[in-house]
Design a protein that fits this description.
The protein is an alpha+beta fold and 131 residues long. It has a single domain, classed as 2-Layer Sandwich (Beta-Lactamase). The chain is built from three helices and eight strands, in the order E-E-H-H-E-E-E-E-H-E-E. The strands form two sheets. Strands 1, 2, 3, 4, 5 and 6 form a six-stranded antiparallel beta sheet that branches. Strands 7-8 form a two-stranded antiparallel ribbon. The chain starts with a strand and ends with a strand.
Length: 131
């Protein structure tokens, strides 16, 4: 679990994050969350979305360990309203141990076979994607 502020600065990490990425807690706190992302995923952080959601739907997301190795991840984002402002909680799941066939299945599920678009009244309306 990683907690970041609205500008993408890491405010809290748990022990699992330390193990997963190879950093000590002190090395992560008050650093940009992009430190944990390969270069191609950097620059798009935004905490303005106030919905619980998967991150990077349709992308093969990867984390970046301290030693420079990349590994496939699944990330779920949740907003946290606090008296100090909006924070985001990111639950990171390492997909490295999944068999390739299951990894493709998980990626397909993230891509979604369902498209979601807002209707004119601001509600979410879904429709099936065509292949």
């Amino acid at each position: 679990m990683i907690i970041v502020d609205d500008s993408g600065i890491i405010k809290l990490v748990n022990a699992r994050t330390e193990t997963l990425f190879g950093y000590r807690r002190e090395e992560l706190l008050d650093r940009p969350v992009e430190l944990l992302m390969p270069h191609r995923f950097r620059g798009g952080y935004a905490a303005a979305n106030r919905q619980v959601r998967p991150m990077g739907a349709g992308l093969d997301l990867h984390g970046l360990r301290r030693d420079g190795t990349k590994f496939p991840v699944e990330i779920s984002l949740s907003p946290l309203e606090t008296t100090d402002g909006l924070l985001a909680s990111a639950a990171v799941r390492d997909l490295s141990d999944l068999p390739q066939s299951r990894l493709r299945s998980t990626t397909g599920r993230r891509c979604g076979r369902r498209l979601v678009r807002p209707d004119p009244a601001g509600r979410r309306a879904g429709r099936r994607a065509h292949r």
